[in-house]
Design brief:
It comes from Flavobacterium limi. By secondary structure, the chain is mainly α. The chain has helices at about 1-30, 35-45, 55-75, 80-100, 105-130, 135-145, 150-165, 165-180, 205-215, 230-240, 245-260, 265-275, 280-285, 290-310, 315-320, 325-340, 345-354; strands spanning about 185-195, 200, 215-225. Helices cover about 75% and strands about 5% of the residues. The relative contact order is 0.05.
Length: about 350
């Protein structure tokens, strides 16, 4: 009985191996016919069978899977996720061939990884230009996860999420940029697409040169990129402001002043934050009645409200010293002077603003 059981087990394994190879062959055939979506369905169903296969067969399976996913992503079918999954498959190819010591697909897998990264970067840029900010962000972040040394993609993801008004995700990425002390110094490698006549950015001079050699691009040029540290904090402050996290927004704007004392937006927004903080007091004042106790509370709350309003004045005055004819700042400051009965200051500013 025991011997029969062992023979039966071996027979079942052989059937499984045959089924696996047959299905992989079917997937390869479908892929070659341009039916990548049908091919990936087979490969996903078959993947569990590959776990006990020899390393050479694993590398063949994952190379095919990588190619199918890369093709789907290239057709803009769930591009960000399929590019990410394809990159993992190609890395599995390299892993298994390193373990087996037999290199059949590693070189092609490495080339596919580089090509894929370049296409994903260009796809993110195209989405951003078209106003598809969320899609752009997802692609840029996938590239960052794929190559965390290339932190510019994390910056691009944060900027795209900010434009998409996905403030929580934007903050998450900008805070990560702060944590890694991102500066963004470097060089962008551009070339003109012969077909579209538009410039595209490449991840390296070698990546760009390969496309030029294929006759797809021309007119290469390099562009130096200055530090983006200030932009990180500016965008982070704005995101906190939009999310109404006023405490963190205030901290970010104060730091921006340390980086650039003449950045007018910091002073304007700090004044705005001060004025926003009095809204709760205004609501309490409006809810009071006419009793003696309530009138005393009214005087107390009004004095506190006026102190908060007064605290915005230095920021607005500084903003006007940077840009004396700024109409919005002038209007806001005049309104504050009038509400606080600061007649002398009101008249002086009114005379200079005419």
């Amino acid at each position: 009985m025991k011997l029969k059981f062992i023979i039966l087990s071996i027979a079942l394994i052989n059937v499984g191996v045959y089924s696996q190879k047959s299905q992989i062959k079917d997937a390869q055939s479908l892929f070659e016919k341009g039916k990548a979506e049908e091919a990936i369905v087979i490969l996903k169903k078959t993947e569990y069978l590959i776990l006990n296969a020899p390393d050479e067969e694993k590398s063949e399976f994952y190379f095919l899977k990588g190619n199918v996913l890369k093709d789907l992503a290239g057709k803009n079918i769930d591009a960000a996720n399929n590019f990410s999954d394809a990159s993992q498959s190609y890395q599995d190819v390299i892993l298994y061939e390193n373990e087996s010591g037999k290199y059949k697909f590693s070189v092609k897998a490495n080339l596919a990884l580089k090509d894929m990264k370049s296409k994903l970067v260009n796809g993110a840029a195209a989405d951003f230009k078209a106003g598809n900010f969320k899609e752009s962000a997802e692609k840029s972040y996938k590239v960052y996860l794929f190559d965390k040394k290339d932190t510019l993609n994390l910056y691009n993801a944060a900027a795209a999420y900010l434009n998409a008004k996905e403030y929580n995700l934007a903050i998450q990425h900008y805070e990560q940029l702060k944590k890694i002390n991102f500066s963004g110094n470097g060089i962008i490698y551009y070339a003109t697409n012969k077909k579209t006549k538009e410039e595209d950015a490449f991840i390296s001079p070698k990546a760009r040169e390969s496309y030029i050699q294929e006759g797809l691009y021309e007119k290469p040029r390099n562009e130096a990129v200055l530090s983006r540290k200030f932009d990180v904090y500016k965008s982070l402050a704005y995101a906190y402001l939009e999310r109404k996290d006023f405490i963190k927004a205030e901290a970010a704007y104060n730091y921006l002043i340390e980086l650039n004392p003449n950045f007018i937006d910091s002073y304007i927004n700090l004044a705005y934050l001060k004025l926003q903080s009095k809204k709760e007091l205004v609501d309490k004042i409006d809810a009071l009645g006419n009793s003696k106790k309530e009138m005393l509370e009214y005087d107390k709350l009004t004095a506190k409200k006026d102190d908060i309003t007064r605290s915005a004045i230095p920021f607005l005055q500084k903003a006007l010293s940077i840009e004396p004819k700024n109409p919005d700042v002038t209007k806001t400051l005049l309104g504050i002077y009038r509400s606080l009965d600061m007649t002398k200051e009101y008249n002086a500013l009114k005379a200079t603003s005419n």
